[in-house]
Amino acid sequence: MSLRDISIQINNAEKIGITYHVSPDGDAVGSALGLLNGLRFLGKDVYLISKDIISDSLRYLKSSEEGDGETIVPTKDTDMVIVLDCGSFERISADLKKFKGEIVNIDHHITNDHYGDINYVDPKAAATAEIVFELLEFLGIDFNEKTETTLDVGTCLYTSIVTDTGAFRHSNVTFRTHTIAARLKKIGVNNTFIYTSLFDNKSFNKMKLIGRALTDMELLLDNKVAIIQITESLVKDLGLLNHDTSDIISFALQIKGVEIAVLIKEAEDGAKASLRSKNNFDVRKIAESLGGGGHIKAAGVKIKDVTIKQAREKIIEAIESAMN
Ligand SMILES: [Mn+2]
């Protein structure tokens, strides 16, 4: 179904829930709140469904307080749920098992399994927010006009784009990405404020964790692979349970000659690993060989019932065989 047709379906819906993937990142939250605020401005009855509590670093987005982790099931009168930035039914931050209405799945993950009644998956979109921007235009939001609404919505969508493009540095950035960003800039979206809120906003202890993690980082396999390990005791020492580590792993990729960065985090029942690659090395394959998944340049895996040391051995082995 085309985006224009989807906009007509949305216009026909009476009550709409909007949700995203579990542990929502800046794209998930920005896309959802951008759509929510836009639809609300257009007079639609719309609300957020979220098992997750939206992280503090995204609280500057309008209506983010509605992501309080308390609305999990759609209300009885909901006839449509729009799921954004989520590749599979299992990963939705909502319980839709008993939902009888229409599920609209809008996403940019190439691995999306088309779980919706309506599916719109565009892997060329750097962020799901690019699709939401176009959808909102079809719905009647005029992004040429500077209003309180376009500014609020624009701040949400710009946040998504900055998040999923690594602040415009990744290879997923296209002409469309910059065009949308430029149009949002033109109506007054504050790129510096967004960047600062997202990245220059760390707690002192988070910075210490980065320091300790980097101190013990190792280079392996001809200095092409950087490995960072984070133990539970280190995280507990610094009072940083459930913190995000995506910014730590990106430091490892900044090293000259490093092709693959690995971050292994000790968990209660095993270890979680994130993998990133700088050029074209497919880390998704490595993650998949260990039971995980993701994208070519960013993937993850959870390995159960292992020590962090054993997890490290398994991952190195998998990388070694993938490199040969
Ligand atoms: Mn995304």
TrEMBL record:
DHHA1 domain mapped to chain residues:
242-323
Q: Which residues form the DDH domain?
A: 15-160
What the entry lists under Pfam families is as follows: DHH, DHHA1
- Quote the protein name from its UniProt record: Bifunctional oligoribonuclease/PAP phosphatase NrnA
**What does the record give under GO molecular function?**
nucleic acid binding
Question: What is the organism of origin for this protein?
Answer: Clostridium gasigenes
So which domain of life are we looking at?
Bacteria
